[in-house]
Amino acid sequence: MLKTEDAERSAPHATETPTDPTPASLEFSSVGLDPVLQRAVADQGYTTMTPIQAKAIPHVLAGRDIMGAAQTGTGKTAAFSLPLLHKMLRHENASMSPARHPVRALVIAPTRELADQVAANIKGYAAHSKLRVAVVYGGIDMKPQTLELKQGVEVLVATPGRLLDHIEAKNCVLNQVEYVVLDEADRMLDIGFLPDLQRILSYLPKQRQTLLFSATFSPEIKRLAESYLQNPLLVEVARPNATATNVEQRFYSVATDDKRHAVLKLLKDRELSQAIVFVNSKLGCARLARSFERDGLRTNALHGDKSQDERLKALDAFKAGSVDVLVATDVAARGLDIADLPAVFNFDVPFNAEDYVHRIGRTGRAGASGLAVTLVTREDARLIGDIEKLIKKKIELEPLELDDAPPPRAYRERSRSEAPRSEAPAAPRAAERSAPRRPPGDPFFDRPYEPNPSAGEPSWEKAAPPVPVRGLSPNIKPKKRVAALFGAKLPEPQQETETN
DNA sequence: AAAAAAT
């Protein structure tokens, strides 16, 4: 969410929706939220809505099913949680017995950390109300969660696996859920999550309001999503898959063996106080983190093979500034809100272009500026082409001049206790002394993708027209549709039973 | 070529 002065900087590239009840102004006070919520919003210093909030809140209040697309870091969580909380406060469910405590709103997220964060935000908005907000996810003891659920919660935030555990253990009652939100909806609907998601949805009433939010929506996912929505409305304030304009995106062509060196050099040259370095595999993540540690950087690894305790600690330490470099897999790609993060590195080019958008969305949040560096090897040409097409921006590959010296050892000399964290890492002396013998490297390959307007390909400036959301075509079953979408086989039913 | 999410 943006504060007043920031709001104008990220003016909406509005895609008008015909039935759009645009609020009178961008002030939170103009949409008539319950005073209890307005107070909570004010507590956090917010007065002005972001574009996605201004556009989505009236429709959510009006009870519409929504597919919401807006760039990363523009306040999607508040866009759905404030109006839902408002409705829950206004409409006390008279039929519900006070002895039972049915969940009324369910929010599902793709990672534990994101579920945690979303729950924390919603708790903030609900702070002055009596609504109870809980979060459940795997990797930690189930008992405290069970206890909390049994005492009753109105808003439940969850990751899919643990939620199913609780459902099947009858720890929570979901047959009176009125509102469902899929955060990072395109991820929740992808092949890996879909079976769990479908099972969860099968426990919910058909009659409900469903909200889908993400910064990225492929046309295929949009179509699939329709089958879970009733008379849905597409709310978008930027072309889907758009990257934030306040993030400087650089692409350097480097040799695989030079990548580590390149990160160290750029950290120094750009005087970056902190950065997330994304890698594609858990093993690579652990190795790179260890290597940075040997170079004297304060480093943590964050990936799915770490214990939940370690994961949370790594994230907290990074947020607190006691760690400079967080090496992470795509577990950290989506949704995480790390205030004032100056830079994101793609040590590996992500396999999915969508993940590129989400990764770099960790910087430049709430209108701040950010730097996104992607290291590109010759094997990555196709992936870069995919990204170019997705974000509809021309990608200029640049050479990166590396010193011939070995990766800087001067980092080692920097003691952990000295050197305030705002200071840039110490200069690598060896690197400074030796003249660069390597000539400035040429990009390894030609431009991977040039738009061809005569072939109907979009030009960089012109955003693709918004895709209208139409009704579900009833003759295609969602499962089949997914199989068709991905050209892949769905998990065989036997595979599930085999695991016992 | 992978990661994530239950144990």
UniProtKB/TrEMBL annotation:
Gene Ontology MF term list: ATP binding; hydrolase activity; nucleic acid binding; RNA helicase activity
Positions of region (Disordered): 1-28, 402-475
Domain Helicase C-terminal: 258-406
Annotated GO biological process: response to temperature stimulus; ribosome assembly
Keyword Hydrolase: yes
Sequence ranges assigned to domain DEAD-box RNA helicase Q in this UniProt record: 26-54
Keyword ATP-binding: yes
Full protein name: DEAD-box ATP-dependent RNA helicase RhpA
Organism of origin: Piscinibacter koreensis
